[in-house]
Specification:
Layout: E1 2-5, E2 9-14, E3 18-24, E4 28-34, E5 39-45, H1 54-59, H2 65-78, E6 87-92, H3 105-119, E7 126-129, E8 135-140, E9 146-150, E10 153-156
Parallel strand pairs: 1-3, 6-7
Antiparallel strand pairs: 2-5, 3-8, 4-5, 4-6, 8-9, 9-10
Helix pairs in contact: 2-3
């Protein structure tokens, strides 16, 4: 089954599922896969810290990196995933407006992600972050394969 993850959303699934998200600019796309349980999930988080709008974070934790990432991991644990087997990949966190972007949302999203992963002893296996190009992510939960499409070119992450 195909699942599309919109901005500020997260989807999980199992073998046979394909999860896709479009238009990753400054947003974080986080893909987590457990090859043993053959389950995975994709988060498309917009902003780094939920403290700017706690009410919004309560309604939709996936909008923020600091609340969405823990929720993604918890959802995968509920599906039988184990931390020791998880393969974690990231995409996005760019500067779609170039260096003139005043708030540096993409850079801040990436910093919050790295701090969260570091505190929890989780390493990124691969990443395609930064730059000005928008990305589309295709995440195959049968194999754990992540393909990034950007500017008409596709590459495996």
């Amino acid at each position: 089954m195909n699942h599309v993850v919109l901005v500020g959303d997260m989807k999980t699934g199992c073998k046979g599922d394909m999860i896709v998200t479009h238009a990753l600019g400054s947003c974080l796309g986080l893909m987590v896969y457990d090859p043993g349980a053959r389950v995975g999930g994709l988060l498309h988080a917009m902003l780094p810290l939920s403290k700017i709008n706690p009410q919004k974070a309560e309604e939709n934790p996936y909008m923020f990196v600091d609340t969405g990432v823990p929720d993604l991991f918890t959802s995968l644990y509920d599906l039988g995933a184990q931390k020791s087997r998880m393969v974690v990949k990231a995409a996005g966190c760019g500067q779609p407006l170039g260096n003139s972007e005043m708030f540096k949302i993409g850079e801040r999203n990436y910093t919050v992600l790295k701090k969260l992963l570091w505190k929890n002893n989780v390493l990124l296996e691969a990443e395609d972050v930064g730059g000005t190009a928008s990305r589309t992510v295709y995440f195959d939960l049968s194999t754990g394969q992540v393909v990034i499409s950007s500017k008409g070119a596709k590459k495996e992450l």
